[in-house]
Amino acid sequence: MKPFVAHSLLATLSLISVTAFAAAATAPAAPVAATPAAAAPVAAPQVRLTCGGIGSDESSAMLADSGNHALTLIFVSADGHYTSDVQTRIETIKGALVAENSCGPIGQLDVTTMGSYKIKVTAEGVTQEKTVSLAPKGGKRIYLRWKAD
Question: pTM of the predicted model, to two decimals?
């Protein structure tokens, strides 16, 4: 009878081991501490500068649509007439170029993120610079006037 008892004990221990192994294999994994992900690189702001406004129909349409743009630039000569061929440069506040074009008499700027930008414009050999805070579709307007010599 002793061999039977030993055999039964061995069978019971084997059954317990198999059951414990099966339970461990099907149990949900213990939570693992999250490791911080690497910070995503910050993308440069997307900026689009659209130039136009030649002719009263086009300038009227651009001015009417100014609320759909972050900024509308209106270039005017000392005598109050529109000015074209204005070298327009848009930079981040740190000085990185984001848009550049020859504009006039109207330039419209669209931005994807709110922020501060430097606007540098040159006409008739005179450069003007402004720093502006812009938001997408902010509807801001700036009139830039060149004075007579």
Answer: 0.68
